[in-house]
Each structure stands twice: as C-alpha cells, then as structure tokens.
Amino acid sequence: MQYRTLGNTGIRISEISLGSWLTYGTHTDRETAHACFDAAHAQGINFIDTADMYNRGEAEKAVGEYIKGVNRQEWVIGTKVFGPMSDHWMNQGLSLRHIRNACEGSLQRLRTDYIDLYQCHRYDVDTPLEETCYAMHNLVERGYILHWGVSQWTAVQILDALRICERNNWHKPVSNQPIYNLINRSLEVDVMDVCDKNGLGLVVYSPLSQGLLTGKYSPDHVPENSRLANESTKSMFPTKRMTEEYFSQQEQLKGIAADLDITMGTLALAWILQRKPITSVIMGASTPDQVEQNASASGIELSDEVMENIETIMQNAPVDQYTGARIGYGIVKRGY
Fold it and tell me: Which of 54, 134, 205, 329 is flagged as catalytic?
C-alpha cells in the first residue's frame, strides 16, 4: 500500500480508503463489517470514511464498535456533518449550534475522543459561511477534531472559505471529498485545480460508480447480491449511466485491463490515482475479498499510452463552453 499526504497536514493516508456509505450499518452485518475492517488493516489501509447521516448514525456505530477493540493510533477516522439526523428541521445544516451538537454525537457513536478529519458534507446556503468556518475552527481549538474539510463544494465556495479563514487566522479546510470516476469527471472543470493550487487533499468517493465500473454488469445481467439487485440500495444506483454507449466502452476497457493482467475495477481505480492532486479513493466493500481486490490498485503505474487509450475510449473530459475543446485534467490547452 502506498500513502499520500492529506493536503497541508502531517497526516499520510492510504491511496485506497474504506468507506461506509450503503454498506456498514445498513445491509452488511456487524461480523462481515469487522471482517472488512480487518482485511483493510491487513492491506495497509489506514483511513475509514463515514458520516453521521449514513443510516442515521448506524454506520458510525459500526465503525466505533470496531475501533474500540483495536489500536486507535493506527487509524485515521473521517466523518461528516450536514444531513438530517432526525425528522426535525433544526437537526441538520452547518450552523454553529448543529455542528457542535452533531460533533458530540459522532464522537459518542465512534467511541473516540477526537476525529481526525471532520467534513462539511454539503454546502449550507441557509447559514453564513463565516459561522460555519468559525464552528469548525472552534472544534479544532477545543481538540474535538484535528482537521476539517468539505465535500461536494464548488470551487468558489472552497475559495470563499479559505479567504474567510485567512482573514481571521482560523484553521483552514485541508481537504475536499467530491465524486470522481471514469464516467463522472465534473471535478476536472475547476475544483481539482483549485484544490491542487491551494493545498487541499482530494479524497474522492464513488470511484467505481457503485460497482458499475467493475465490469460485472451487462445490459442483460444484474449480479445477485449486487447493489442494483439489493432493494435497499438500488434506488441510489447510477442506472442513467447504463447506456449502450457505456457498455461499448466497458468492453474496450476490459480489453485494456486484460492486457495489463488486472481487473477492470483495478484499472478504474489506478486511472484515478494517476491524477497527482488525488490523495485517496474511497471504495465501498461488502466482503473482505472486495477490500483485497480494490487495495491491489495502489502503486499501479499506467503508462502514457494506456492513459491516452482510455481517453480515446471515454471521450468524456469536460468541454470548454466557448471552444468545445476538451479541458480535463492533464489535457494541454492550446490557443484560444
């Protein structure tokens, strides 16, 4: 397992991380969840990502039950705040009041006295950004959290938060957790560049598009025990991506993976890790075997030729609104 520094911090986290959305605390039982955590540790994975709203705290509880029985110092724990934690309208958002209450709740469920990385799960348009920044700074000062970050914020929102913190000499966000994978590259429009230039680590989620990029789905086949076959998770599955064009691309990607003697899923993870601004990819896994398979992507170097071939197959880098030219990460911009 390879490790990368999380933004402008002294923390190094594994290139492959373990997430808990739609898995732990939901349809995966505690015994299997703990087996996945053990497998992650054996593979050198040291970062677990969760959120308070994942099944209303049940995912955090699953992580907490495991953490209490192991060496806490060997794990970097990230969780998030924003989403509703009850049916009452006040129990959500990024106000000072809710952030403080939510953080205390997360600490109890995680059975730890500090959170390594506390993230604003979304942007709160109903709360002054200065209040949110102060709330996170205050949690760092009080020792409840070590660092704070954001998730799915726009480039402007991230820059605004940085400038507010700089003006007030507050602790700045150190990371961003956006969605990013081979078929969703919106991160490359401007957020990736802003994070890279301002020293924010990028810990990306849904790197396999919930399993679609593993190549196990086909137009006429949905595997048993997959997310699309599960009643509790299929509503979240990116079925809109399951087009004739995608499945044609999938066959070509499988060919590249076969030539490299790796799986298509490993290829998709390695492709993300080729992007230098990326710190880690958060993978979901419901079995220890899936953990081991995904962890194998760490350290794989894809040649320039392979990267160009993938680009040729996908043809989905963001497009400049004026020229129509591709402007994705790594694409050289020429002329106007």
Answer: 54
